[in-house]
Amino acid sequence: AQSVTQLGSHVSVSEGALVLLRCNYSSSVPPYLFWYVQYPNQGLQLLLKYTSAATLVKGINGFEAEFKKSETSFHLTKPSAHMSDAAEYFCAVSWMDSSYKLIFGSGTRLLVRP
Amino acid sequence: EAGVAQSPRYKIIEKRQSVAFWCNPISGHATLYWYQQILGQGPKLLIQFQNNGVVDDSQLPKDRFSAERLKGVDSTLKIQPAKLEDSAVYLCASSSWGPNTEAFFGQGTRLTVV
To answer: By CA distance, what is A50's nearest residue in B?
Structure first.
């Protein structure tokens, strides 16, 4: 069955530290991959998406993600965390053979300590 | 461009009452999604429309939930009768049809069932 898993419901980092949020998918066919961010009491906003043009994708606010087919992963990183990065982050996937149904992971809440 | 509009933003009802949510997608977007997001969880897809046809409603509790998208534009999601466990944020999203297309989200409707 096709699914997406985010390891770690909460990640806490110090301001200026590396951010690493993990996302793995389970599928026999390559999915389309997305990262969304949700700030308190707001809707979801796209951070970045994998387009197959390059395995390393750059998004907004200094975030990037690397697609690793051999590991079925699409982890999100940012070299230096900022207080304003505190939010909930969701990995999402869709597949052509499921009519591009967009499925979300359970989310990771990022806490940034001063 | 105008974003995805949802109303109301908040709704409080008693269990066994009925409630309806409205969504106006971005103009020209063929695909419309309704998601249920329970506190602390990722968005769960309830139903996906392609124009005015249903693509996927496998996770829609059809004994109490219904949705329609007349004329392939606006959509309504109804719950009748509501249960306590329906308390959640209901998110509407829209996108163009095809691979790797971004879904744009509305602000959501926060439903509290008491």
So the answer is: B100
